[in-house]
Write the structure tokens for this entry.
Amino acid sequence: MIALTTAWGLSREPFAQDVPVKELFPLPGLGPFIDRFDYAVANGLSTVITGEVGSGKSTSLRAAAERLHPSEYRVISLIATSGSLMELLRQICIALGDPPMSNSIAKMIALVRALLLDIASKKQIPVLLIDEAHLLRLDVFDQLHTVAQADFDSRTLVPIVLSGQIALIDKLLFHTSKPFASRIVGRSHMEALQREHMADYLAHHVSIAGATKPLFSADAVTAIHQSSGGMLRRAGNLARGALMAAVIEHCPIATAEHVRIASTEIM
């Protein structure tokens, strides 16, 4: 088995998913999203971040959320499913450590509201983050605002941040989603990286992995950018595959040919 760390003299695996937030590559869209995130949280509103598969939206959500100090905020982080509103309410209860105890939506909404109010009574601000939110059903969006609002819409109990693929916007534009969509104050979209940003992205990741010299030739960077379409996850997989192919051929640097080989081995 080939170990990239040993072969390239690295201190850790390059392009790993668990990169600490402080070492994340500063994506062009990250700063604007964090600004919208902060505004929504501070004002009890909602915001949305979208992007294609592997564009960095979930990583951006993690980066924004990690800035919330646990003494001031209670982050409720969920991964959406295609289940009903009842399933979402159960997820919230479980995330808050309070087992769901009813099959009545009305009782479950009341329970979730009570849990959110309890958090507020402890001088914390609850923040609900829902990743893969494009999976949510339309009937969930139809009633999602009822979870976040107090009686007579007098105040917001929890700001909600949604992250998902572009289909999420289509669902929010549906007429039954308007009660919730009207509470959204900002929309961020993670664009594909341009070629110059891709070069910086690759250099950044091999640097934090311990590389002391370039590991990709200029034509390899171009090949990774073209083959990945600027999408981070695919670019990372291509980069690792190219490094592996270069090791097998005993090459001192990964080239476009190694990227081509890697592209035949990933989906």
Observations:
- Strands lie at 46-51, 73-79, 125-131, 160-164, 184-190.
